[in-house]
Design a protein that fits this description.
two-stranded antiparallel sheet; mainly alpha; 80 residues
Length: 80
């Protein structure tokens, strides 16, 4: 998960994930999928991005960046 990404799925992302726009249908579908979620005071399901990543077995949801220093060392023949 990047620093710019919100901690919770957006309502639109929950709609896409569940296929439903109605809050009750979304909650029912999230339960059927086995996803952990909270319900806010308006009845809307709230899903942590981390919970979604864990559900699908993603260990680190942050983008992977190469170690440029290590690559430069390999190119120049400097290895540990």
């Amino acid at each position: 998960m990047s620093d710019r990404e919100p901690i919770f799925l957006t309502p639109e992302e929950i709609r896409v994930l569940t296929g439903y726009t109605r809050k009750a249908d979304q909650r029912r579908e999230l339960q059927a999928l086995g996803l952990k979620f909270l319900v806010n005071h308006t009845g809307r399901p709230v899903v942590l991005r981390l919970a979604l990543a864990e559900h699908f077995g993603v260990r680190d949801a942050s983008p992977c960046m190469p170690d440029l220093e290590a690559l430069e060392e390999l190119e120049s023949g400097k290895t540990a």
